[in-house]
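ok so for the tutorial part 2 we go from a plain amino acid sequence to predicted structure tokens. step 1 is just haveing the sequence, like this:
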Amino acid sequence: MTEETPLVDVHAHFVTPWYAEEATRAGHERPDGMPGWPSWTPEDHLRLMDEHGIDQAVLSISSPGVHFGDDAAAVQLARRVNDFAAEVCAQWPDRFRFFASVPLPAVEASLAEGTRGLDELGAAGIVVETNTHGTYLSDPSYEPFFAELDRRGAVLFVHPTSPPGHEQTALVLPRPMLEFLVETTRSMVGMMVDGTLARHPNVRVIASHCGAFLPLMIDRLKLFAAFGIGPDDADGLDDALGRLWFDMAGMPVPTHAETLIGRAGSDHLLYGSDFCWTPPSVVALQVDALDAHWRSDIHGPWRDLVATNAQALFSWEGTGSHMATAIKASA
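step 2 — the prediction. this is what the tokens look like for a chain of 331 residues:
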């Protein structure tokens, strides 16, 4: 186990056999074009965390989420996965927290389950997919949902999923390879252009995978604004980007994270492993790459950076057995 500053992993997933079975029955036998479902246990996750100095992991359900076409079934599945995650966190309170799943696009039910997750189960925030059956987060029907998150100042983890119509593409690739990045970009751009992010500045939104292509899109959005198309407040796009938070799941160095930092700075960067969908050997490659890239980099030690940022995002006074001491030491 490393002796360096311990990490908070904000992009960490769990899968249970009963969740995989229900998703498979709904047609997700090869979820998002991947070969199959990964296995996961808390014990396996803890071993990975100990190996890489991860003090806490914030668990969430990944794509395809909990809504497979029926609102009532989605409500029940959201409750079940949230109850399970809360039980795991109760058993290992210093190591695990979780983002509560909600059954969007059922807005009223999502408000109810989000409230239950945050107030009764102690969730660290809410997780949503970039779209659900083609309904994106910028859809006007979601306004009450975002208004409540804004009132609470809640953390919203936005995870990519398969886009509608992906079956028609000529590229037979697993959607996480390309489409997930497009999805995150599409969803975030939608919320920038329609003003969702501007109307709800207190929602602390985490954009997966360094914000995908979003850092490259800001100037293009400004160009279209000059045509009279797109965002009304083109000058506010940089501010909107700067308010987002970004996990570094995937392979963020040497290129992706530096592109993001050049546009938005580094004070909202967070660590993400993407375990259990990313196997342990690849998690190790990611951590080794980050250690090597930042060891002599001008940004300073990356572990100190993302640990401090996680503390700022969640406003946690103490985050496990090591984190409070590490935060003070790195300040």
